[in-house]
Every structure is written in C-alpha cells, then in structure tokens.
C-alpha cells in the first residue's frame, strides 16, 4: 500500500469494466456500487483481520453478488498478481455449518469452490477467497495468516 494512489488507479480492475476508482472513498480505499473496499496486504488471522477492519469502521468484506465477487477478485489481483488466498467476512465459528457475515448481513449469496465447504479436519470455520482451484470460496482454519479485504458497512441487500 506504499505505492502512490495515482499509479494504482492506472491499473484495470477488470478486463471488461474499466479501472479501480477511488470515488468518494478515503485514501487507499476503492469504490464499487457505492461501497468502499480496501486490500490489506498484512498477513493476519481471520480474527485479527476482523479487528483491523473494525478499527477502520469496516469489516472483512461481505459479498452479495457475482459482480461484487468479481470486483473483489480484481481488487486483490491489482495488489497481488499471484492472487493468493484472502480473508472475507464469512465464518461458521459460532455454529458449525451456519454461515454468518461478520458485518451482520444475511448470507443470501455464496460462491463456494467445488467440494467446499468441507470443514476439513473438523476445524475450518473461516472463509478465504481465491481458492487455488477456481478462485472461489473455501472454508479454512481461522488461524491461517493471509491478506484480507475490508469493506465499508452498508444497508444489507
Ligand atoms: Ca466449519
Ligand atoms: Ca475447506
């Protein structure tokens, strides 16, 4: 995140839909459909990612459509060309198999990778984006330390 915003803005976020736009968002945040998003490169556990986002009056991103998923993927790719695993705000830590967004929105849209969620080892309660197989979602161990994406709070769809 040390690179100048100007340079970041020159990179396309999507082959078809143009470039990352700051819009009305704060420095280092990017706008999509009226919501602000930030890629956080620091490797953290899911809980630390949540605390970090909350410290900025946000939460790990909740994703409510394929369009939003594609934007988040593009945001990640803009900063990480390897497109590695990244936390989103979904977990079933409170009740196994019952998925909740940490920002309180109901889970109406999911984009699980093939065969997921599998609660592998009985200890996967937090969800990563960009699973290696198809860049969709996979439940993983919450203690995994990886980058994350924060998003501003919205009226839930
Ligand atoms: Ca689980
Ligand atoms: Ca899994």
From TrEMBL:
Q: Which domain of life is it from?
A: Eukaryota
Which Pfam families does this entry report, sorted A to Z?
A: Lectin_C
Which Gene3D superfamilies does the record cross-reference, listed alphabetically? Answer: Mannose-Binding Protein A, subunit A
Keyword annotations for this protein? Disulfide bond
Q: Does the keyword Disulfide bond apply?
A: yes
**C-type lectin domain boundaries:** 32-151
Protein name from the UniProt record: C-type lectin domain-containing protein
Instruction: Give the source species.
Output: Seriola lalandi dorsalis
